[in-house]
Design goal:
Helix content: over 70%
Number of domains: 1
Number of helices: 4
Number of strands: 0
Order of helices and strands: HHHH
Structural class: mainly alpha
Distance between the termini: 23 Å
């Protein structure tokens, strides 16, 4: 399994554990809880998106004999941006309401750039037989 895939899938598993713990805190009486949208982002962006991108990097058809999975720099950039955007989203839920909208907007932009990186990385590997 390629190094990028291992890191992305391990990150997905960590986010799954964090999201599950956050979900437990949502229903546990007296526990400090994240807002519900953050809980959903932890599952969908943290766990599900990392899982999908990691498996796609691993399983998509080979790009070439020399670089079967293409240039990994774009995959690393996508992984870093996706998780940085998610961390900013989680932090944004805890700051003052006057600053929260700006923080969430920047987080969404970073996550959008992450998806663009992944699309650019995987696009050449989607081809005819």
């Amino acid at each position: 399994m390629p190094t990028v895939t291992r890191w992305v899938l391990r990150t997905a598993l960590i986010w799954a554990a964090v999201a599950t713990a956050t979900g437990v805190m949502l229903v546990w009486p007296g526990a400090p809880a994240f807002p519900y949208p953050t809980y959903l982002h932890l599952f969908t962006v943290g766990w599900l998106s990392n899982l999908i991108f990691g498996v796609a990097h691993w399983m998509f058809p080979r790009a070439s004999a020399a670089q079967p999975r293409g240039d990994a720099r774009m995959a690393w950039a996508g992984w870093g941006l996706l998780n940085a955007g998610l961390l900013l989203r989680v932090a944004g839920e805890w700051i003052r309401p006057a600053q929260m909208d700006r923080c969430l907007l920047i987080s969404a932009a970073i996550q959008f750039l992450a998806v663009v990186c992944w699309v650019l990385h995987l696009w050449p590997r989607v081809k005819e037989r």
